[in-house]
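Quick start: what a row looks like.
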Amino acid sequence: MEVGYPDHRRPLYLASSINQIPIKRALVDMGAPMNLIPLSTLQAAGISERKIQGCPMEVTGFGRKGEYTAGHIQLWLKMGPIASLARFHMVKMEVSYHVLLGRPWLHKHRLVSSTYHQCLKGRMNGKMIRIAANPSPFEQVEAYLVETMFYDQWAPSGESSEKLELILLLKEYKDVFAWDYSEMPGLDPGLVVHTLNVDLEAKQVAQPTRKFHTEIEGKIVKEVEKLLAAGFIKPI
């Protein structure tokens, strides 16, 4: 497999999301025995420190310098087609990554990483998957970070922060929205109404019964039952 930069020194940064909040720099590090998340990422995602559990642990970095974590937290991580809960140990230090994914996450999903080929590879549901690196993990305002020297293009400035602010706003006012049929009783027809524009004089023709895959049919039955229970539809 050829790479665009045969003599590059790029780290393996992947785009992902934490609790549905997009992040640009998930650093994959095969040498790390745990997954790490800095306090700044938790704050940007609107996650309270009070959710941190467990006792501090010492982690040793470059030069054998020791730092202590503040505990751990379970977060929903989505990386490409892979979505699952992951345990992160929180650190209060300035780092260039948004999260660091070590051996626990890689081994859990049986993934092989390559900084040279800038990707992760593995198998999911019997099929080969490949998750490519983020080609532009830094914004221009982050040019002071040393690792930006390895990249020749910037992420769109402000786009990610605006999207993050919008997601946080929607989460703050999530009680305004209806998330289930049962939360919409007595919906005012003056607000919205659905009609079928049919010719009442047209001859009615019974259509043949449609057959679905058993898995899809089960989902259809569940949705119909929800609509019946909420009174949105009724048998005729």
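That is the whole record. The mean pLDDT is 83. The first strand starts at residue 13 and ends at 18.
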